[in-house]
Amino acid sequence: MARTIALIPAAGMGKRMGAGSNKQYLMLDGMPILARTVRTFEEADCIDAIYLISPEQEIPFCRSDVVERYGFTKVRAIVPGGQERQHSVYNGLRAIEGIEPDDIVLIHDGVRPFVSVQMLEDAAAAARESGASVVAVPVKDTVKVVQEGLVTATPPRETLWLAQTPQGFRYGLIRAAHEQAAAAGFLGTDDASLLEWQGQPVRVVQGDYRNIKITTPEDMILAEAFLKETAK
Ligand SMILES: Nc1ccn([C@@H]2O[C@H](COP(=O)(O)OP(=O)(O)OP(=O)(O)O)[C@@H](O)[C@H]2O)c(=O)n1
Ligand SMILES: C[C@](O)(CO)[C@H](O)COP(=O)(O)O
User: Fold this and answer.
1) Whose C-alpha lies nearest to ligand 2, atom 10?
2) Rounded distance, CA 134 to CA 191, Å?
């Protein structure tokens, strides 16, 4: 049976959060965002090993204040990140030990702490069957394409989905896509887009509107509200 490996990029600088420190370590009800995210992977039976990706200078802190403090036993390594998210993920892909082309890699933002075990299982199963999967939700608003302050298009809403993570892949496929993108200088904002760029199919798996990426200060308010609701 193919193994399922989690790659958790957490090497961003959190510029849009403007917290003055890295957003992945902001506390949500007493626990760092990143630790909340890793906990779900630690608890999921379908996950065999976890690789974290961190800014190089924060690796000791990540080890002491996330991995050791919360006793995460599945974390195999903390890998230094790169300039862009894509570079960080590529570093992670190259660091996984003993991985086979048919093993599954689940790539998940460290700052999406509301991921569920069900989402991990669904994304991994779809990747095993189809090669690549992306967790996503349908958009609720009408989306405008805007150029130089003018609307140039209103794409039909039923075709629009918001991409989340986890995104799941057979290792051989995602490794080759990252290598080809790096050689061609193609930069995508998620991993599925690299396979799309190659013309490969990507299966959509139903996500959850609560699986937010904590990006700007109002996302912290939402995250705290979600936590309060589940504590009731
Ligand atoms: N060079 C980078 C940039 C981003 N990420 C990670 O990718 C995820 C999604 O990125 P985003 O929310 O954009 O985080 P930041 O890059 O930190 O935010 P900003 O763009 O506001 O600086 C985060 O877990 C982030 O840490 C990464 O590992 N390496
Ligand atoms: C991967 C991602 O979270 C999917 O929504 C998103 O594309 C990351 O983008 P960002 O530019 O790093 O915020």
Assistant:
1) 189
2) 9
Per-residue burial over 171-198, b if 16 or more Cβ lie within 10 Å, else e, is bebbbbbbeebeeeeeebebbbbbbeee
Backbone angles phi, psi at 163, to 5 degrees: -75, 130
Binding-site residues, ligand 1, Cβ < 6 A: 9-16, 24, 53, 81-85, 88, 109-111, 213, 215
Q: How far is the CA of 10 from the centre of ligand 1 (A)?
A: 6
pTM: 0.97
Note the Cα 24 to chain centre separation in Å: 13
**Does residue 108 line the site of ligand 2, with CB under 6 A?**
no
Backbone angles phi, psi at 115, to 5 degrees: -60, 145
Residue 166: its H or E element: strand 161-170
Distance separating alpha carbons of residues 58 and 8, to the nearest angstrom: 15
Using the atom order of ligand 2, give the atom closest to the CA of residue 213.
3
Orientation of helix 171-184 relative to helix 85-95, angle to 10°: 130
134's CB contacts (< 8 A; 6+ apart) are: 123, 163, 164, 167, 190, 192, 202, 203, 204, 205
φ/ψ (deg, to 5) at 101: -55, -30
- Please give the sequence-ordered ranges of beta strands (E in DSSP) within 55-149, or none if there are none: 75-80, 104-107, 132-138, 145-147
What pLDDT, in 10s, does the model give residues 149-193? 999 999 999 999 999 999 999 999 999 999 999 999 999 999 999
Q: Model ipTM? A: 0.97
